[in-house]
Amino acid sequence: MISYQDKVVIITGGGSGLGRAAADSIAAQGGKLVLVDMNKESLEESRKAILAHSKDASIEIVEANVTDEEQVKNYVQFTLDTFGKIDGFFNNAGIEGKQNLTEDYGSDEFEKVVSVNLNGVFYGMKHVLKVMKAQGYGSIVNTASVGGIRGVGNQSGYAASKHGVVGLTRNSGIEYGQYGISINAIAPGAIMTPMVEGSLKQMAGDDWEAAGKEFVSVNPMKRFGKPEEVGNLVAFLLSDAAKFINASVIPIDGGQSYKY
């Protein structure tokens, strides 16, 4: 039995997709949430959607850019000022970026993707870990990708940044386990989120739905994953039930990354 009663969790990228799904799962189990995103409107939509399922949930929202370290410090401090502690952190905000061969991949685009997906994760860990170390406990889940454990064609920035997230997760898990802190990463595959839909549209334009069916035809489970399936995994990994899981990267991709 997993319970989040009296527990406080920060979720970046909380305005949609995996962030919203994890927030929904944690709120249903009694957790108090601080949702962080660049888009205030999407944050309000997340809060409304979660309250529709968990009407008594405690949900705060913070508009912030995870690539700005000062704004990261601010959402961490806001959480402490509001709730007095941080039990869990879903370090999830990320972007895919444009698709292109490495030789044609724009340098500005590469820096943009790495800034969000890797620097933003690092800043979040850096400032949340200070709090958790002082507390003597805590759990962090970073969002990597199957693109962080194997190559992904035409996505140099994305693959490089997600490989970096894997490295940060393993390294920090080794460093901070002694302080009662578990740090893990999830490696989602094809989960039907707005980001994956955008990726399919980049590849196939108006034929993106047909391209999606072809894409998942090679998956052992023959379908896209659901955001709530990832959200439930995150809720487990951040819970007390998963305290001895540390410095691990857990694929959630229907088995696709093991097929080849």
TrEMBL record:
<protein>
    <submittedName>
        <fullName>Oxidoreductase</fullName>
    </submittedName>
</protein>
<dbReference type="InterPro" id="IPR057326">
    <property type="entry name" value="KR_dom"/>
</dbReference>
<dbReference type="InterPro" id="IPR002347">
    <property type="entry name" value="SDR_fam"/>
</dbReference>
<dbReference type="GO" id="GO:0008206">
    <property type="term" value="P:bile acid metabolic process"/>
</dbReference>
<feature type="domain" description="Ketoreductase">
    <location>
        <begin position="7"/>
        <end position="189"/>
    </location>
</feature>
<dbReference type="Pfam" id="PF13561">
    <property type="entry name" value="adh_short_C2"/>
</dbReference>
<keyword id="KW-0560">Oxidoreductase</keyword>
<keyword id="KW-0520">NAD</keyword>
<dbReference type="GO" id="GO:0016491">
    <property type="term" value="F:oxidoreductase activity"/>
</dbReference>
<dbReference type="InterPro" id="IPR036291">
    <property type="entry name" value="NAD(P)-bd_dom_sf"/>
</dbReference>
<comment type="similarity">
    <text>Belongs to the short-chain dehydrogenases/reductases (SDR) family.</text>
</comment>
